[in-house]
Specification:
Length: 305
């Protein structure tokens, strides 16, 4: 409210008129100062001052509260910033330590790389030398393989020829041996029975132990235990074969006359067949007996060319 609002509107005042009026009414002059309007104006002014003061205090209190909050927030932000700065300083220290460690590692790796490059150069030189040696060895292996293949072909030819000759020899001698299992031999005798030359007489010989045994025999031989005992005594397997053949011959009823063609053999089964053995022939180093009844002619057989 402007100051002029508290004043009464101006009016003309005449001091002479006031004195005349006072003289006519009483002996004491009086002046009307209009106190009541002035008092109202003063009270209104004081009320305005009080309201302004109260509003100012309220505003100051609000601003103080805001200032305290702002200071508190600023202090918190400052503390947070200082914490972050400290954290970043610690990270900086760690990064510097890591950088220093990486520098040492780089130096070590550089040294290792130089060493490896040197080793690589040496390895390349050795590889070149080994490659040259490998080429030489390959040539030698190729030559050796060619020679082995040639020898293999020769051996295959010899094997085929020997197999055929062995088959002819087995058929001629009337005797064949087979491996049934480890250290067990099956001996087959033929050309024993004149009425059936293909008939087989078999004996199974077990040589897996020091004492030989004959677990099976077809047809059975009554003298087989004695023959096995004699074999274990003299350890002569060839003589055992001849004795077994002689024992099988003894089983034939009405044995043929020694002068018959079947008995006029130079060995077990020899004489029934005369195979062509090519460059190899069977010969006897002793005179041939008139008849073979004990297989003794097998002792005189030799394989010659």
């Amino acid at each position: 409210m402007p100051p002029t609002a508290y004043l009464a509107p101006p009016r003309p005042i005449s001091l002479h008129a006031i004195l005349d009026a006072s003289t006519s009414k009483s002996a004491t002059p009086s002046l009307d100062l209009q106190w009541e309007p002035f008092q109202k104006h003063v009270e209104a002014f004081l009320n305005a001052i009080d309201a302004y003061t109260l509003a100012a205090k309220t505003e100051i209190a609000a601003r103080a509260t805001d200032h305290v909050a702002a200071v508190r927030d600023l202090r918190a932000e400052t503390e947070e910033m200082e914490r972050r700065i400290q954290h970043e300083r610690e990270r900086e220290g760690d990064m510097l330590a890591t950088l220093e460690s990486e520098r040492h590692t780089l130096a070590d790796l550089t040294s290792s790389l130089s060493h490896l490059q040197s080793n690589l150069a040496k390895t390349k030189e050795q590889s070149s030398a080994l490659e040259s040696e490998l080429q030489t060895l390959r040539k030698e292996v190729k030559t050796e393989r060619t020679e082995k293949e040639r020898q293999g072909k020769v051996l295959d030819e010899m094997k085929g020829r020997d197999g055929w000759e062995l088959k002819e020899l087995e058929e001629t001698m009337g005797w064949k041996v087979e491996g049934i299992k480890e250290d067990v031999l099956l001996m087959r005798f033929t050309l024993i029975d004149p009425s059936d030359p293909a008939r087989e007489f078999c004996v199974l010989v077990d040589v897996s132990k020091h004492e030989y045994s004959a677990p099976n025999c077809d047809p059975p031989l009554p003298t087989l235990p004695e023959l096995v005992r004699q074999l274990n005594s003299d350890r002569d397997l060839f003589a055992f074969i001849k004795r077994v053949r002689k024992a099988f011959r003894a089983l034939i009823p009405n044995p043929p006359n020694p002068s018959t063609k079947f008995d006029d053999l130079s060995g077990p089964g020899l004489g029934l067949r005369t195979p062509a053995l090519g460059s190899r022939t069977l010969s006897a180093s002793t005179p041939r007996p008139a008849a073979v009844t004990d297989g003794s002619a097998m002792e005189g057989l030799t394989l010659g060319r």
